[in-house]
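The data layer described in this paper is built around a simple, fixed record for each protein. Such a record has a labelled line for the sequence and another for the backbone structure tokens. For reference, a complete record is included directly beneath this paragraph.
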Amino acid sequence: YLKFKLLHFLLIVIFLKALLETGFCSRPWIPYNGHCFYLNRTEKTWPEAQRDCRFRGGDLVSIHSVEDQTSTDELWIGLNDRKTEKLFDWVDHSTVSFTSWEFGEPAVSTDINDCVLIRGEVSSLIWIFTISLGNR
């Protein structure tokens, strides 16, 4: 029995010249570390979340440092191994230079897990490798 997860997702907007020049993020976007973020609390699968992000002109977030991951929610992030099993890639194809895996993750003994979520914990944020309904 597989438990399919529907999660909230975090969206980072693609950099727009005007946005970078003014440092302004319009509502409901949240400015952080030179980027504009959008937190959508509607539960979606990973592919649905990515489609919604792209519709809004952004994509699922790529995390490159401990400073980039500030959340206490359970959220989809842009890391996945959907293209090549056991080879993780960010949706923006940036280098995977930082990870914060939960102990025992990524559990790559099976090929049904493709998507990564971030889970807020009291003392730290950890990443979980999991399945998303409709992820293929």
About this structure: The longest strand covers residues 74-84. The chain has two domains: 1-26, 38-134. Residues 46-55 form the longest helix (10 residues).
